[in-house]
Design a protein that fits this description.
This protein is of the alpha+beta class and about 180 residues long. The protein has helices spanning about 1-25, 150-170; strands at about 25-35, 40-45, 45, 55, 60-70, 70-80, 90, 100-105, 110, 115-120, 120-125, 135-140. InterPro entries: Ice-binding_C (IPR013424). Keywords: Signal.
């Protein structure tokens, strides 16, 4: 009886854990590698607003904190849609020239003046000025629960099986005494 309560409790805790994690807003980490490197974090979904967007072309974000080419601090980011060859631009936060300009995949879904949701995955970006330089942008969900490895799952299930077998033996009175 105790084992069935314990298993029911574990199942309930797991269901509650998944339900509450799905309700939380996710934070995405952006990691750019190549001839230019940068990392920054943004909410998975945001509303740039009509003053930060040109609908049907791009949206921009001012003062995004991160590490850009080895320097910690803010930068301005522009995300382009497929109609203008996707990709992104990175510029200095205080009236500075564009530091990086790329083309590639559209990195979000939604409309620029309403709500956008960033896409997860790894994207190849090319230098806008056709210099031959390429970059890799990886977008990951920092709130995602880690997926257990198959070996860990096998050990968990094996352990539960042993607990169940021991419990069954006790119930049947087959415990050996020394």
């Amino acid at each position: 009886m105790k084992l069935s309560r314990m298993v029911a409790g574990l199942v309930a805790a797991t269901v509650i854990s998944f339900a509450t994690s799905a309700a939380q807003a996710s934070t995405y980490q952006f990691t750019l590698t190549g001839d230019y490197s940068a990392t920054w974090e943004l909410p998975s979904t945001l509303s740039p607003g009509q003053f930060n967007a040109l609908d049907g072309v791009f949206f921009y974000l001012f003062g995004v904190d991160g590490t850009f080419q080895g320097i910690d601090g803010p930068a301005n980011l522009e995300f382009y849609n497929d109609s203008v060859h996707g990709g992104l631009d990175i510029a200095g936060a205080v009236i500075a020239p564009t530091l990086l300009s790329t083309t590639g995949a559209q990195l979000y879904t939604g409309t620029e003046t309403d709500t956008v949701t960033f896409n997860l995955g790894t994207f190849v970006l090319d230098d806008f000025y056709a210099t031959g330089k390429t970059y890799s942008l990886t977008v990951t969900d920092l709130n995602a629960a880690p997926v257990p490895e198959p070996g860990s799952m096998a050990m968990l299930l094996g352990g539960l099986g042993l607990v169940g077998a021991a419990s069954a033996r006790r119930r049947n009175g087959r415990v050996a005494t020394a």
